[in-house]
Amino acid sequence: MYLCNENATFTHFQIRHSRIMKTKNHTSFLLLLAAVLLAACATSGLSKEERRAQTRKHVEECLAARSFKIDVRDMQTLRYGSRNLTSVWNVEVRNDSLISYLPYFGNAYSVTPYGSSNSKGLNFSERILSYEQERNQRKERTSITIQVANDEDKYTYLIEIYDNGYSNVSVRSFNRDYISFSGELQ
Prior knowledge:
Layout: H1 2-43, H2 48-65, E1 67-77, E2 81-94, E3 97-102, E4 122-127, E5 130-136, E6 141-149, E7 154-162, E8 166-173, E9 179-185
Antiparallel strand pairs: 1-2, 1-9, 2-3, 3-4, 5-6, 6-7, 7-8, 8-9
């Protein structure tokens, strides 16, 4: 009987000690999280105008280098309306190449049916055939027209990048319905 009481007391002590340690660990975690958040706020103490200037400079550098990536969040289709995208989709320009990783909803004419194992849709990496860039200072945006082709179709990408990083991507092709996307320059 003495051993049972001793074991019962020991077990009660273990449970109580475990609860105290969890509370201490939890408190330590919260203190560490608060310290990290405060440090992040202190280092990002830029004014709104300074953040805009940084973003504008980043956009200018990306366009000058002809190297940028746009993550898209929304899609507007010709026949199926607008949709929010839940997965990561993007279009990227790297010097003389266009890397398109975009979803497609719409009609395709005289190409491999979308969704078949041989269809590329708007998922490809191809050499740029034509690249034109035009700045509209009044609207604070740069428009880029890119033409590419692969074995399925010929595409014209119209990319509009605003000074604040927001972007629109419109895709026209010979054998597919028009589709457009909106997102942000990374």
